[in-house]
Design a protein that fits this description.
Its main location: membrane. By secondary structure, this protein is mainly alpha-helical. It has helices at residues 7-34, 40-64, 71-103, 108-136, 152-172, 175-178, 185-195, 198-214, 217-248, 252-255; strands at 258-259, 264-266, 269-270. The protein has one domain (7-270): Rhopdopsin 7-helix transmembrane proteins (Up-down Bundle). The chain has 10 helices and 3 strands.
Length: 274
């Protein structure tokens, strides 16, 4: 097996990825605020960004200053890291889901999507509870110089199942909307491609689950950092890509909005409030 990342390399990743993800999220919020289009999906993106910043700060303390902290603080930092990680990932998914909600017609479509959002929240709570009861059932890890709970197979399987199913839902959800919208084939492809970027998160999450199951230590930490920041970046893509497409549009016929019946779509991406 190849050697894992060094402590210094892990620290570099810990700073760079959250800073990039926070910049992208801040740009997304600026784009929406500038057009007075802030909504619930933006609030979830902002929450994910705050969790990601918390993950960065706690990781810095956990990785660099662990020798100087009392043991109970090290354990508390580990649990905080776990909560921040799940917070970033699931707030990002909720942001994507509510982006679809704002596209949806009032009625059955929105009720289905909001029920899915509630399920996402329940899954988030269950996953964190699973970490808690797994770690508390075998507390010997708390005495390690850098406490890291051996999460093992059950946690890895739960992460794989929920991540894959959650991302499949996010990829398929826009189909509830676009089949009723008046779009060209190219515009439909743009919508599908943008929301299909959730598959990127799936790939990263599978890598993280593999390290949870087999290796742990710094490889698990780095893969968690990647999954958290990539999840947040992917959640912002629909807004950021729309912004740049709008900038690049020279022809008035290209930039003209298309009415989908319930909302306004530009470049195959819904941009107006519900």
């Amino acid at each position: 097996m190849s050697p894992g990342p060094t402590l210094a390399q892990t620290q570099v990743v810990n700073y760079i990825l959250p800073i990039v993800a926070s910049f992208v999220t801040s740009f997304r919020l600026y784009c929406r605020a500038r057009r007075s289009l802030l909504w619930i999906d933006d609030a979830w993106a902002a929450c994910a960004m705050l969790f990601n910043i918390g993950l960065m700060i706690c990781s810095a303390l956990y990785l660099r200053g662990y020798v100087f902290h009392p043991q109970w603080e090290k354990v508390a930092l580990y649990y905080t890291l776990s909560q921040c990680f799940y917070g970033v990932v699931w707030c990002s998914r909720l942001s994507i889901l509510f982006t679809v909600v704002r596209l949806a017609y009032w009625g059955t479509q929105r009720r289905i999507l909001i029920c899915i959002a509630i399920i996402f929240g329940v899954v988030w709570g269950i996953l964190f509870a699973q970490v808690w009861w797994t770690c508390e059932s075998n507390p010997s890890w708390k005495q390690l110089p850098r406490p890291q709970c051996p999460l093992g197979r059950d946690v890895a399987i739960a992460q794989i199942v929920t991540d894959v199913l959650g991302d499949i839902v996010l990829i398929l959800a826009p189909f509830l909307i676009i089949y009723r919208a008046t779009l060209t084939t190219a515009q439909r492809v743009r919508v599908i491609c943008l929301f299909s970027t959730s598959a990127i998160t799936t790939v990263v999450s599978l890598t993280h689950a593999y390290f949870v199951f087999t290796v742990g230590e710094l490889k698990e930490a780095v893969s968690a950092m990647f999954e958290a920041s990539i999840s947040l970046i992917v959640a912002n893509l629909s807004v950021v890509v729309t912004f740049f497409l709008r900038m690049l549009a020279d022809d008035e016929t290209i930039s003209r909005p298309i009415d989908s019946g319930s909302t306004t779509i530009e470049f195959g991406i819904v941009v107006e409030e519900p």
